[in-house]
Design a protein that fits this description.
Alpha-D-Glucose-1,6-Bisphosphate, Chain A, domain 4; single chain; 162 residues; globular; 7 strands
Length: 162
C-alpha cells in the first residue's frame, strides 16, 4: 500500500466541517461534478446503495475514463461523529491507476477552527498495463483528490467569512 495525505486548517468548527465532508457528494465533487484534466474530461456517476448514515453506508461510482469502464464500490468502516471517518473499496474495483484503497478523514479542533487530515492508502493495479499507469499517475491523482476535497471544503466555509 502507498499512503498520501493532505492537511489543512479550516476556519469553522469541527461539527460543521465534518457534516460537510461526511457528505460523499461534497468530498467526491471533483470526480462527478466538473470536467477536469485529472479525470481526462470524464465524470463518474454516484449511486447510493443504502440509506444508512455512518458505518455500513455504501455507495458506488460508475462511468468511464478514456473509454475504459470505471466501477468502484465503497463502504464506510469507521464513523465517529464530528471527528473521524474511514471508508474503503469493496469487491473488485475497476480503476485505471489504482486498485483497492482506504480513505481516512480525521478532524481535530484548533483555536481558530478545525485541522483536517485526509489520507488515502492504495494499491497499484495488478495487470502489467495498470501497474505502469499506476506508477506514472497514481500518486499525482491521489494528491489531487485529497487536495481538492480539502480545499473545496475550506472554500465552502471561508468564502462565507470573506
Amino acid at each position: 500500500m502507498v499512503r498520501e495525505q493532505y492537511e489543512v486548517e479550516i476556519l469553522a468548527p469541527p461539527e460543521k466541517v465534518f457534516a460537510h465532508m461526511d457528505d460523499i457528494n461534497n468530498v467526491g465533487w471533483h470526480m462527478s461534478g466538473e470536467i477536469s484534466t485529472p479525470m481526462m474530461g470524464s465524470r463518474l456517476n454516484l449511486e447510493t446503495i443504502n440509506d444508512r448514515k455512518g458505518a455500513g453506508a455504501t455507495y458506488k461510482w460508475k462511468g468511464s475514463v478514456m473509454g475504459m469502464a470505471i466501477g468502484i464500490e465503497e463502504t464506510i468502516t469507521k464513523w465517529t461523529r464530528n471527528k473521524e471517518k474511514t471508508w474503503q473499496t469493496i469487491g473488485k474495483p475497476k480503476m485505471i491507476v489504482m486498485s483497492e484503497y482506504t480513505m481516512h478523514l480525521l478532524l481535530t479542533p484548533t483555536e481558530r477552527g478545525t485541522k483536517v487530515l485526509f489520507e488515502i492508502d492504495y494499491s497499484l493495479p495488478r495487470t502489467p498495463w495498470g501497474w505502469i499507469m499506476g506508477i506514472l499517475l497514481a500518486r499525482k491523482y491521489a494528491k489531487w483528490c485529497l487536495r481538492r476535497a480539502c480545499e473545496d471544503a475550506k472554500r465552502a466555509f471561508e468564502a462565507r467569512i470573506a
